[in-house]
Amino acid sequence: MPPWHDWLEQQGIAVLGAPARLPSEEDIDKAEARLKVRFPASYRRFCTELGPGRLGDLLEFWVPWPVKGFFDVPRDLRARLSVVKDASGGGRQAVTEKAIQIGYVVLGGAPIPRVISNRSAELLLLPSEPTEGDECALYALDHRTSAAPPRLVKLARSFPSLIQEGFAAKRLCKLPFVAAPGADQFGMEYHPRELPAP
């Protein structure tokens, strides 16, 4: 696979700007040790080559970063998933394995860019559901219905397919989960985020 910057451009996705800082392999190793998990190589490379940011106005990606108290770091959400509704055709009623949040699916209406709110859905890696090579399935946790358990929605079989098929080919817009998407949500742009100084 070519560098992520080149790969996004091959998909027609422009990278607008560049972050001043990027996590190192050591930062990612520390996050993996803390979470007791191994990230897919594609996500590790994304972290060290592009850093955090937003794809269109739909997918917000986090990366490991060593600043104390920094909010946007991958974390295990399994404690919040003791009761879920499997919205992907499976019979899963809970997630007892690690569920690593690596960002958000940003939902809701204007203003643009959309803000992360309680209508947004956590973007999760499930390492216990391997797919190909070191990749694993990605899910979103849709908790917009307060009277029912959150819905676990399968988005992609790998991190690259989330971007290539889900975003660039707009497969995500076919999910009721991403209802009535605006054109701006699938704007073919990646906006890097600035990381705080260590």
UniProtKB/TrEMBL annotation:
<dbReference type="InterPro" id="IPR037883">
    <property type="entry name" value="Knr4/Smi1-like_sf"/>
</dbReference>
<dbReference type="Pfam" id="PF09346">
    <property type="entry name" value="SMI1_KNR4"/>
</dbReference>
<protein>
    <recommendedName>
        <fullName>Knr4/Smi1-like domain-containing protein</fullName>
    </recommendedName>
</protein>
<dbReference type="InterPro" id="IPR018958">
    <property type="entry name" value="Knr4/Smi1-like_dom"/>
</dbReference>
<feature type="domain" description="Knr4/Smi1-like">
    <location>
        <begin position="23"/>
        <end position="74"/>
    </location>
</feature>
